[in-house]
Amino acid sequence: MAAGPQPSNPRSTKYYFAYGSNLHIKQMKRRCPNSRYIGHARLSRYRWQINQRGYANVVAVDDDGRWVDGLVYEIDETDEAKLDVNEGVSKNAYEKRYLPILLHRASGTLYRRPVSWIVSKGGPAAVCRQAKCAAQELLVSPGQQRHDDALVYISFRHVEDSVPKEEYIDRINLGLADASVLGMKDDYIRNCIRPYIPGPVAESALPDGNHGMSSTKAKVKPENIGVKRGDPLESHERPLTRRAPDPGRPPDERYVQAMARTIRNNASAPNLRRRLHELASPPPRPLRRLLQVPTAVTLEDYASIEGWEWRSVL
Fold first, then answer.
1. What is the pLDDT of residues 30-84, one digit of tens each?
2. Residues 17, 101 contacting (CB under 8 angstroms)
3. 111 labeled binding residue
4. For labeling, which of 9, 144, 181, 211 is most exposed (least CB within 10 Å)?
C-alpha cells in the first residue's frame, strides 16, 4: 500500500536580536510580518553607538560591565531575507553574526504573539491595558535563559561615533517607547542611548498645551491661526480687515523701492523694469467733457418820446 503524502517540514525559525529602529513593533510588522515577539535580552561585552552612516550599531569591547539591551523576535526564512534587504547586507552596510544573549522571556499575553496581533491591539502598552494588569505583572519572566546563537546585524566597516540622521531620531524614539514597556530599563536608555539620540519634547515644555508630540522639534502655532473673524479682539489689537485697492492712488514708495532693488540685483528683468515704470508714472488724468446747455439771450431796447418811456423785448 502506497504511503500517503508526508506533511511538509515546518519552516525553520531563529531568534533575532534587535537593538535599533526594529525595537518599534509596528516597523517590525511591516518588515517581518511573520515574526513573533519572544522577550527582551542583553548582549554582553558590546556597546551601543550611532556610526558615521547615521544609524545604530554595536561595537565589541573588552569590558564585562558594558552591554547592549534589545528585543528578541522569532523570524522565519522569509522574514530573514527581508531583513537582509532592509539592513543592506548585500551593500556591506551590516554583516550577520550569531552571538550569545541573555534572554528574559516574556510570559502571559505577549510571549510568542505575532507582532501583527500586537499591532492590531494597539501596541504593547495597549495590550497591557486591555489585559487589565500592570506591565510589570504581564512581563514576569520565568528566569533568565542563555541563548547561544541569536542573529545580530553588525557593521564592522563603520564603527566611528557620529550623529544620527534626522529621520532616524523619531524611529528610534518610537522603538524606545515600545521597548520600555516591554522591559528595557530607563537607566540603560538614559546612559547608553540618550548621548546619541535626543529624547522627544516633554509635554511640560510644549507651548500652549500642545501635548502628545513625539517629534524632537515642537511646532509653535502662529497666534492668528484659529481666530475667527467675528471673535472680539483685545483692546490693543487692530481688526483684521482688507482694504480694496484704490486705482487712483499712487503705489506705496516702499513697494517701488523694493522692486528697484530687485531690478538692480537681476540684470535680466525687462518685465520688472516695465512694471516699475508703470508704477512710478502718475496715472493719466480723466478726460474732461464740455456739457452743452442751450442758452437764451434777451435784448431790450429803450425809447423815450415826450416824457413816455417805451421798452421792447426781442
1. 999 999 999 999 999 999 999 999 999 999 999 989 999 999 999 999 999 999 9
2. yes
3. no
4. 9
Distance CA 179, CA 22 (A): 10
143 labelled binding-site residue = no
Reply yes or no on whether 237 is catalytic.
no
Measured between alpha carbons, how far is 272 from 275 in angstroms, rounded to an integer?
5
Q: What is the mean pLDDT of residues 87-109?
A: 94
Burial bucket for residue 218 (CB in 10 Å: 0-12, 13-18, 19+): middle
Asked if residue 21 belongs to a known ligand binding site, the reply is: yes
* Identified catalytic residue from 74, 87, 300, 306: 87
Q: Grade residue 264 by pLDDT with cuts at 50, 70 and 90.
A: low
pLDDT over threshold 80, residue 185: yes
Domain ranges in the chain? 13-198, 253-279
65 marked as part of a ligand binding site = no
Assigned fold of 13-198: Hypothetical upf0131 protein ytfp (3.10.490)
What pTM did the predictor assign?
0.62
* CA gap 63, 44 in Å, rounded: 9
Length of the chain (residues): 314
Q: What are the angstrom distances between the C-alpha of 81 and each of 34, 152, 156?
A: 12, 14, 20
Burial level of 309, CB count in 10 A (0-12/13-18/19+)? exposed
Closest by CA to 41, choosing from 21, 22, 20, 68, is: 68
